[in-house]
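Researcher: Structure for this, please.
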Amino acid sequence: MAKLFCEQTQGPCNKSLKNKANNSFLGLLKLLLVSLWVFSCPAIAQNAMAQDQQSPDASSIIAPKIERNQINTPNSNTKFLDGSAYVGLFKLEGFQTQPLAGAQIALHPLNWLFIEANYGVSQVNDDDRESVGFNSTIADEKLEILSVNLGIQVAKSQIMLNRDRPIALNANGYLSVGAGNMKISIDPQLDAQKQNTVELDTIVLGLGFKLMLNQWLIIDSTVRDHISTEAILDDESKGHNLEFRVGLGVYY
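Model: Predicted structure, token format:
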């Protein structure tokens, strides 16, 4: 009887034990989840506060205000003709350096190429030779200088002027080569072998730069060597006659 009773009651007993074990496991799992949630809430809240502090409100961000300066740049690409008046110094070989004044006109068929014609007037001073006992050979102190030159632009740059409204000035460096003529009056009584007016043919080599002040105004500075076929005081040698000048001109 006892054996039969145990066999009949063994099934329900096993089921009851299993249910209790399952309930205990579920209780522990719930307790673990609740503990994790309780301990993680402060960390989550602290993280959120840190992010709020690191990410300022969009309304508090100051957007930088950048004003672009407009730079005016004079441009000569559309110009075809320029004319200028100049002053400077001229050194005729064998004589003293004298003031120079003149004018030039130039054509610009290309941006980097120009053709110019020059006419200048200077003086010839023979005081040094007279002071050491030589007779003066000069009948008229006036010296006329003519030349036609071909110029090629070899350098281009900009000069910045910092003002309320910045300006960039174009500066062009150039080389020139050409041919010319110098006229001077000789006193025939003092030098019978020469004509009253002596004309010396010259080859002209030069370099200079042009600075554009605005769309129509330019500054032109040039150094040139007028190489004559003969010198005034020496027919057998070539003369190197130096010119330095600065001019103010306009573009058309």
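Researcher: Any notable elements?
Model: The chain has two helices and eight strands. The longest strand covers residues 138-161.
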